[in-house]
Input
Amino acid sequence: MLNEPSEKKNDPSGGANQSRVRDYNERLVLSLVRRHGYLAKSQIARRSGLSAQTVSVIMRSLEKDGLLLRGKPQRGQVGQPSIPMSLNPNGVFSFGLKIGRRSADLVLVDFLGQELGSISKVFDYPIPSEVIVFVETGIATLREQLSPSQQKRIAGLGVSIPSELWNWAEKINAPQDLMNVWKNNDFESKLETISNLPVSMQNDATAACGAELVFGHGKELADFIYFFIGTFIGGGVVLNHGLYSGRTGNAGAIGPMPIMNSDGEVTTLIDNASIYTLEMRLRANGFTLSHQWSEPEDWHSIGPLLDEWIEDTARHLAWAIVASSSVIDFQAAVIDGAFPSDIRQKIVDAIRLEIEKLDTRGITEISILEGMVGRGARALGGASLPLFALYLLDQNVLFKGA
Output
């Protein structure tokens, strides 16, 4: 571990104290191993810049704590055989809760993000008391899939929830008085009480971006902008392999981004590239989209209205991607959403065609990629929050409390 003069340990304006540096270094090792699947001590030392002795101490400690697994020795040309280390799937477990405007999902995952069980609930609109009951019964059911020793390794409950949920009552046809309950509801503390676990909360689209960072394209991309098309579109930003949440935690909230609609009116992305807009078109033509929530893979019966929505969504997303790339030189734009994978592919293909129509002089070409996590990204993103809090590299680890 790095050494530091003792007089700086209690100075919040100075460098990180020794315990903080140790925490950072351990997170760095775990994050590198997660990104690459498995690494030997020499590889970790080279990639991290830490000394071989420091890496050895960290790896022994993490292995003793059950977070790393030792692989079979690999013999090279010369010297001692290297021993690859990987994350122990049973080292940590976490719950992820997605609270949407139409449904709620609760998942239990292991340290690799592999889903061990899930429970879902569909509703016309979310009511706090009903969500609490759903979570309480769901956690009790999912806990039974773990042994008593495994249950002791549950890191916490991460919650993925739309910002200011009460402000969307009119658009989702929910009674305003019932939605206002969310405004002054100490939901986090109630969840901690019923689960007996630490609870972390995050904007749903930002959490979904975190899932893509940890379990998807984040393994090969250092910087990307992320779009998740749910009932309403949202997004997130990844910079230098880290989730950038911004000053208030709302970075990447691309929904309010100004764009121009097909009538030449200045409006917002959220009103032109969300599943909500598809719902409105369907209702205007005598359809409903209720099957989307009960049979999420059955979108083929929608027909031409779906094709029109894909075309409009792609056009507006192309503008948003170019605008975002003019501010930050992203490697890629990652597109995901609460729809079947073939719909996602069609949207991505259409975006690529739309970008070719735009003037992108002065902007480095950006890759348009399909998300790797899928419609469950928000729940999995919720499950990743306890992992970020305790085990993964965070840009702010060295400065907490400063």
Summary: The CA atoms of residues 20 and 69 lie 24 Å apart. Confidence is low (pLDDT under 50) at residues 1-16, 396-402.
